[in-house]
Amino acid sequence: MKKFVLLIICILFIQNIYCQYNQLRKLNIKAYYNDIEIKGSVYDNGSKLNIYENYSNSYVNLVNIFHLLEAEVIITGNLIKVNSQTLGNFEIVYVSSDNIIFNPRPYPFPSTNNSIIIVDDEFYIRINLVRYIISGYTEEGENNVKLYSRDYERHDLPVLNIKAYLNDVELEGPVYKNIYSPPVQGVDYLNSFVKLNSIFILLEANVKFNNGKIEITGEKTGNILINFINQSNIVINSSIRGGDMSQRLTKNTIVIINNEYYIQISLVRYLINGALSEGESSVTLFTNDYK
Questions:
Q1: How far is the C-alpha of 115 from the C-alpha of 133, rounded, in Å?
Q2: In terms of domains, do 56 and 135 share one?
Q3: Would 2 be classed as within a structural domain?
Q4: Which of 26, 115, 200, 225 could form a disulfide with 205 if both were Cys (CB 3.0 to 4.6 A apart)?
Q5: In angstroms, rounded to a whole number, what is the distance separating the alpha carbons of residues 187 and 207?
């Protein structure tokens, strides 16, 4: 009899821990999309069954975030319809927290289970799933989580505590982290941003700026014409590369920080047929004639 009572107590104790462990918690943080606050509370499901244990796995109000994405949301019972010119049209059927049907299913999100919850009769969606839907990226601070689209122009890029060199000469100005390139393991400086004017002057080129149009001429660089319409629309013509480069290759390769143009150092390597090397605290661009 004592063993039976002890067993019941253990079961109740485990159930109590499980309920507390999986209980929804309102987080004292704010969520943003492209630096605009997403209205409503932010929730964490409190479960380590999820593959993430950070703010990117938290939940934000579904209607509010899709409105910021300029999408129309129509909710009828457990059916959610999302209509958008940029995202396309799709439907979500909420059967239960572990049975959520997306049509079409977002790719390559590994699982849609527990991707949507209901709090006070409102739908909340995992911000990490929205990241997949828009092909964006998230960043976390001490009291916030931020979702960015890939084409959003940011002016708060982190400064890297490294130095950049052309051959053996240090480049003037700070080096900025490229948040737009996919993260890789280890040091990742090859796509970092350096001051455009500094690197091309060291390449002994003449640089002219005229309202977003940049003309570069030099023996090592050839003739380069850059039309910086905006950060996601950059047209580059290179005599060495033989004409216009694909905009898919030039998107987010040039940014404006503190009214100065910064260029992805790997793009310069490509334009001059050079080579790149990186160390623990440096990145170096070599010209093809450097010994």
A1: 12
A2: yes
A3: no
A4: 200
A5: 31
CA angle 137, 139, 141 (to 5 degrees): 170
What's the rounded Cα separation, in Å, for the pair 45 and 23? 6
Judge whether 125 lies within some domain: yes
DSSP state of 251: T
- Residues 74 and 174 placed together within one structural domain of the fold: no
**φ, ψ for residue 142 (rounded to 5)?**
-65, -35
Q: Is residue 175 part of a domain?
A: yes
pTM over 0.70: no
Residue 259 domain boundaries: 159-286
Residues forming beta bridges with residue 80, ordered by sequence position: 75, 92
Give the integer Cα–Cα distance in Å for 120 and 110. 28
Instruction: Please write the tens of the pLDDT for every residue from 181-213.
Output: 877 767 789 999 999 999 999 999 999 999 889
How many other CB atoms sit within 10 Å of the CB of residue 6?
Answer: 10
Read off the pLDDT of residues 226-283 as tens digits, 9 standing for 90 and up. 999 888 889 999 999 888 887 767 888 999 998 899 999 999 999 999 999 999 999 9
Whose tokens are 């319409």? That residue is: 229
- 235 touches 226 (CB < 8 A): yes
